[in-house]
Amino acid sequence: MPDAHPSDSADPFETRLAAGLRDAGDAFETDRAALVTAGALKGRRRLLRRRNAAVMSGAAGIALVGVGTAVLLPSGSPDVQGSPATSTRASASSAPAPVSGKDLFMLLGRQMGDGEYTKIETRGTDEGPAPYVHAVYDDGKGKSAVELSLGRVEPGSDEARQATTCPAKVFTHYDACRTSRLADGSVVMVLQGYEYPDRRVDTKLWSAELVTPQGQHVSVSEWNAAAEKDSPITRPQPPLSPARLTNLVASKEWRKVIDAIPEQTPTATPAPGDTAFGAPVAPTLKSLLPKGLTVSDSSGDDTGFGYLVVDDGKGKTLVQVNVQANMSDVEGDLFGSDAEVLSDGTKVAEHQGPGEKGGSGVVMWTVDTIRTDGTRVVVSAFNSGAQDTPSTRKTPALTMKQLRAIALSSKWR
Questions:
Q1: Cβ burial 255-278 (10 Å sphere, 16+ → b, else e)
Q2: What's the alpha-carbon Rg for the chain, to the nearest Å?
Q3: What is the pTM assigned to this prediction?
Q4: Are the beta carbons of 206 and 221 closer than 8 angstroms?
Q5: Who's near 57: CB < 8 A, 6+ residues apart?
Q6: 190: number of CA atoms within 13 Å, CB side?
Q7: Burial of 147 (0-12, 13-18, 19+ CB in 10 A)
Q8: What are the start-end ranges of the E strands in 13-156?
Q9: pLDDT for 104-125, tens place per residue?
Q10: What stretch of H or E contains 324?
């Protein structure tokens, strides 16, 4: 969209972008910060990964270009260091200069290649703790939602490891997943999967996660539709191949942006749901199983959440455990007035019902407990080896009484 009076030295993209911002401002009277809620990484802290959780929740962003405004980003656009918006902020300080949302979008566009971009939403390093770009990209072969998010993880932590570990197929169906290590020690995971785990719609979600030895975390996602959910499929595959996704997340430019994110002051009080159980869950769960069960799959060294696939000779059963701390503030929502209260104050709720992931004939048996210190332990079992595959037996291999004994075990303390 050309400016009415462009200067001779104006960058064509800068001109179109300024016009787009003006149009967006005219079209919206509400706070534009409310237009974006970063949901990047999809809960990668859970075993499902995109577990992606690790969800960047609640922080607001800015709509860079309003609905109806398209930006055609040419190849060879200036990078962050060369853009006027950034160079004017540079100072003599050794601290990296902030990177605006616009500059971050320009970087992503330059790495993606030629194409038209619409519905652009961004957040820069000076606008919140999680730099973020979301846009609809069209290379002439169909529209695709693309998303970039940047942040930090503790080097060597469970969070860092989970971000680049291929998810277990008992929870996430995908076509391919590969983890590799780059020459500089960074680890990259590229996942070719689907937006819906049960494949009720074949919207493809391909993603790449990179974690450097210093804890810089880069996440890129792309879909073969103009939106993650409730949008028609527009192309057979997302636009970037696994190799191009790897090259994109491995760009050194993102690390410079992450270095410009202000350090966050740690909070003294753990957030609700923070992991209470520091040891791997699966081995503890295995030690509590009744006799006569064989284990065919497990979550390994994951903490906070874990699972086993067991069989008593009559069919597979998935057993999973969540251990969470600081849940007292939601205790009333989780445990009603009819919850059983034990002599030590522990509350217990039992549930039996259909599965939640679409597997034919699957049932879910759950024992949910919360201790007086706010520690919550939830144990669930299914009559299938995975929630989204057909049942392998009439009921789970563990009884409700056995699940209750596991949930109430002192080993979770």
A1: bbbbebbeeeeeeeeeeebebbbe
A2: 24
A3: 0.65
A4: yes
A5: 37, 38, 39
A6: 16
A7: buried
A8: 43-44, 52-53, 62-63, 71-73, 115-123, 132-138, 143-152
A9: 999 999 999 889 999 999 999 9
A10: strand 316-324
